[in-house]
Amino acid sequence: MLNSLIFDFLKDKGACDIGFCKLKSPFKNLDYAISFCIRLSDAVVDEIGSSPTYTYFHHYRTVNSFIDRLGLETVILLQDMGYNAVANPASQSHGDKDYAGLFSHKTAAVKSGLGSIGKSGLFISKKYGPRVRLGTVFTDAPLEVSDFSYEDVCGGCDLCVKACPAGAITGKTFYLGIDRREIFDPQKCSDYMKKHFHHIGRGAVCGICMRVCPKGQRQPKI
Fold first, then answer.
1. Where are the domains of the chain?
2. DSSP assignment, residue 129?
3. How far apart are CA 131 and CA 39, in angstroms?
4. Which stretches of the chain score pLDDT less than 70?
5. Model pTM?
């Protein structure tokens, strides 16, 4: 019942997919996680060519703000029911070298059964490919969880490897436990964006690998 209540709450607020898992969180005694996806605009993503667009940068920031708001509202809901909860920031790096947040949203999303990780290092939603942003809420609420096995979704595809202008994607297939730098070099990505896309949102976004991924391509209407 608790899962259904939270699922319906997030769905009504705009989340396109929601899952639940138990893991080791960065917060004491908050080892249950609620993972949710917000779908990006196909029209905006499809505009991305050899560089990101101003519209994409704005869209990216707007969706992040929406995720933070939705995470906060979920925390308030859980607290009103007597549970503790913390929302993981939508996009916040801890430290200058690893370009990683406090906790990886992708870890919770994969463990919740919402998708997998591609060669690009992006989360690949079962429903919408990489064209989503993720949110995570940690709680002590006793959620019902299931174990999901990881699935390789890329196979022999290497479109993102070829499309990455920074050469930051190695082409290695992701597997559980692999170090992120073996498949993706965040330093190369960041340096290239700052040098070439600084005029678009201070070089903070790119999106090319996401745009070319066939898992995110819309099927033509019949």
1. 2-216
2. B
3. 6
4. 93-100, 218-222
5. 0.92
